[in-house]
Write a structure and sequence with these properties.
By secondary structure, the chain is mostly helical. It has five helices and three strands; from the N terminus they run ααααβββα. 53% of the residues lie in helices and 5% in strands. A three-stranded mixed sheet has the order 1-3-2, with no helix packed on it. The longest helix is centred in the middle third of the chain and has 29 residues. The chain starts with a helix and ends with a helix.
Length: 172
Amino acid sequence: MKNDRLKKIFLDEALALCDSKNDDYANPDDYYANFRMCEAGGIETFRGVYVRLLDKISRLNEFMRKYKMNGSISSNHEGIEDTLLDAINYSAIMLDTYRQWREGNESTGLCANGNKGKCRKARKSDGYDKGQAGPTVEGYNGEELKNNDGEFLITNTAPSLEDIQEKERAES
């Protein structure tokens, strides 16, 4: 990693905190056991993690509100650095659980909104490329759309990590 300060934050601080919390909340057979509990209520794990991430964002907003009011970033309990480290970890956990969900659903034909049927990743031949929003269709919710054949397309308007790495290799 080029930035040693970020390397320290990711590897020494965030990862150590995540491992420590796993000892308290999960188990060696399922690191996300505590997060998966939301599935009992019909909520996908990655969406449950998203709610926890939003809690951290809300807490950060409160830190910034207090800072704007009195110039101090203080808290009675968890400090801003702990909140930021938790947000890093929740982001990584959400990414991992989203990928697990996506991989499982691509193999079962379950699309982003839970509809069964023909379901596949969107392709350039569908009329758009990676990094661009798909065609506008009635009922489009940002997670899925149908092509002209009525097939549900799993879409992601952001480039994947693999796409970014491939582009960097091509540019170097």
